[in-house]
User: Fold DUF222 domain-containing protein from Aeromicrobium choanae.
Amino acid sequence: MEFNRAITAGDAVRRARAIAEFEEWEFVVHFHAKRTAEIDRTDDILLSKDLGRREVTLELAQALHVSEQHVWALVHEASTITDRTPQVWESFREGDIDSVRVSAIAATAEKLQTPEALTVLERSAPEYAATHTIAELRAWLRRLRARLEPQEVSAETARATEDRRVSITHNDDGTSWLNALLPTGGAIVIGDRLRRAARAVPAVDPETGEKDRRTRDQKQADQLVGWLTSCTGPADIRAEIAISIPATDFIGLTDGPGLTLDGEPVGAEWVRELAQSEHTVFRRLVLDPIGEVLDTTVLGYRPPESLRQALRWRDGTCRVAGCRAPVHETDLDHA
Assistant:
């Protein structure tokens, strides 16, 4: 009973905060629209009008103690939502979703090209956003867009891939950041291979008998340095990535995305290329309409390996509310 009261009170606080955020947005939008309309009706030269609009933004920023960029973003996102997905704006008004979620939905709405895709977003986003964390919502929005407009997403990916690069930034404490902008598929493979290599390191050094006290992150960093400076990595450490894709997309009848275990969309063309590798293993999954695996059953707590793999494919990430940990890093009863 105490827990239920806490949940009810917490939801009321969350809703009140969201409504307060909506009122702030509504004030900014109305004030900005009114003042800019007044400026546009004057006979001033264009430069004076432009300076006047900037002054309106500055006034709002000073009144709310935020940056001018924040005000510009708020006005732009509000315009996107009210024009393209008005039902999302109404959910915001009711306190069902907060400003962070509205901003995430606005970013996706701005990218969608077709009225049909916007309709799907408008109908489904408020309900999902109201019951999931912001990280889950952003991942869901990426998947939704990849499913609704696969060709546009593929073209965007191709353009972004042209900017792939590696950079090194040196800190003042004797460490440096190694940053790489890579295609998602390659990054997934690198991440999986690093994790596997780190787990394969013995807990006790066989030569010295000393315990390895490095954290997993430290081991992965050391492995990366070793691989990049020695030209070759351990031959017995392979990356293992899992991608689920509907059969119709895989054979090319449709062009929807594949999904990695943690729910990130990847292009169907890349999945087809990957399937041509001699190391690729195919697994057929039969799911019911709500995504439950139908082809494997077990009685008892300790599942066989076939069920373990089926659950990993089904879930991808931990099923505890709000947790986005990859399923291969969690206990199976969290899947």
User: Anything to note?
Assistant: The first helix runs from residue 2 to 40. Residues 296-303 have pLDDT under 50 and may be disordered. DSSP finds 13 helices and five strands in the chain.
